Structures are given as structure tokens and as C-alpha cells.
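Protein in question passed on here:
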Amino acid sequence: MRYLLLMVAIISTFTLTGCSGKKYFEPENTAKASGAINGHKGKAVYLTRDGVTFDNNTYVGKKSAGSLKSGEVYLGESATHLLTTNQGGRLSLVNKKSKKVSQVVDFDVPIVSAAVKNGLLVYLLQDNTFGIYKLSSKTKLVENKAEDAFAVDARIASPIFIDNLAVVPTLDGKLLIMDMYHPENAKVIYISSESRLNNVIYLSRMGNLLVASTPNRVMTIGSAEGEFTQGISEVAISKGAIYIFTKSGEIIKVDSSLKKLAYKKFKFAHFSAATAFGGRVYALDQKGSLIVMDADLKKHRIYDVGEVDKFAIVSGHKIYKDNRVISLDKLRP
């Protein structure tokens, strides 16, 4: 299980890097969240931007949850298919209804992110090779290698589609924008040029705008443009606003040009997971304080949900944290 062990090592690095000598967020008052917390069986063995795989052959993704074939891990999903992979670089497309494998694609290098649309597979490999694969003819329409990346944040963003364009986030801080049917000439956008831990950790679409982030910089590209350079823990989008969660404990609400609309700082907070939906903002500190705020960051309540040991990931309206599941929509600011 060389590949899985490598990725678990990356997860541990992300969780623990820089913790030595840190001061921690210690709120004076916390509320109980017992009614919003349930147990979860299984130990995390593989983490992606969009989901987590457990040692009992189950997974939780942003859109679904279920079981996996032994030796497979969750990579991503489309409306109709689950994308799974193994340590050797084999990608399987599993039909969500029948639960049967509809197609297998083998790569020479382990695959770290992928997406499917209109019979085309867009992929990124562990050595920062990217490409487009036509499923019907079993051929590669294009494949190229970006610069080597030797240390990455485990939250590797998945490719997304905009009409006929595929947007591929790389491990060295770039976005590659390709026409899926004429992919020879890719447009390259540099988000950040740091030498390590510089992969794209967030990529989403907000109207005609692309919102992308590495651990070092957030950029908006399209109908409005802006950039925010600071240590980034997480990014979320809700109701036309962008929320940036920094490594220094800040929660910043910005517009499409990344101009500040609201701001709140929680001294010494180190966010493990964060999201925004339904007029509320949620940020989980590594030491177990879950901050729940209103959309304008004017009021908040802090819940004690227990320290993050190995991982925390947002799926839908829940945070999966180690062996606990926190239902966020049951908590109020």
C-alpha cells in the first residue's frame, strides 16, 4: 500500500506542520454541541479535497457516501459515476445505480484528482502530469507534465468544467484551461509560485468567475479579478460572497474582486475545516472549538466539539472529524 501510505503521510504533515511552539485558541466560553454530534466507525486512510476513505472500505464524499471495493479509495464523482483509484494508478468508474464498474483506465503513475464529463476524463497524476482521456476510444487526447512538486497539501483540488473548457489545478500552483475537444493549446494561469505546499487546494465557479486558492494565495479570475496573498487555511463561497479563512485565525468576507466586506479575527485559531451555507459561516479550530457565525460576521457562538486528531473534512452540511460527525445545520451563532 505504498501509495496510500504516502498520502497518509501527507495528511499527517498537513495536520502537524508548524505546530511546534504554537499558541492555541482558548475561548473563555463555549457551548455544548452534543445534540449535533454522532459517532462514526472507521479510521481515515485517504483524504481528498472532496472526500475521505475509511479503513472499513467506506467513504464519504461531497455528494454521496457508501462502500468501496477493497483496495480502492474515493477520488471524486460525477452525477452518474463514482471515481475510485488504487495504489498502482488504476482508475475505476463505478456506476452509482448498479454499483458496477463501467470502465477502468490504467496509468503508470498514481492518480490524485480527476473529473468526467461527456465521455472525457480529465486527470492529474502524482508526478504532476495532466491530460484528457477519451473513454469511448480509450485514447489520450493530450498529456503533458508540469513542474515537479515534492511536497503537497493533501487537499488537492479536482478539475472542473465550464461549458467546453476543462480547468485543471496542478500541484505547482497553476490552473490549466483547455478546450476539451481541441486541447492542444492550454492557457496557463499562475496562482502562486512558492516552492513547496503550493498545489491548488480550492477551485470553484461563482457565476462567470473562477475562484482558486493555494495555501499561499486566493485569486478570482473572469468577470472580476483580484488576489489575496496571505497564509490560507480554507475558502468557501455562499450567496455571492467569498469567505477566506487564514492561518492567523482571520475570517474575511470579500466580494468577487476580493475586496473586504467584513472581518473577524480569533487570536491563535488554526482552522482545520471551514464552510459557509444558509446564512451562516462555520470554522473548526484544531483544538476543537467550532466557531459558528452569521453571514456578516457580526455575531458568533463557539461550541466545544473535541480536538482534531487526524483529519476534519466538510461533506454537505456536516463535518466529519476523526470518529465524529457534526451536523452543522443544528448549530446557531
Observations:
- Residues 32 and 62 are 26 Å apart (CA to CA).
- Helices lie at 2-16.
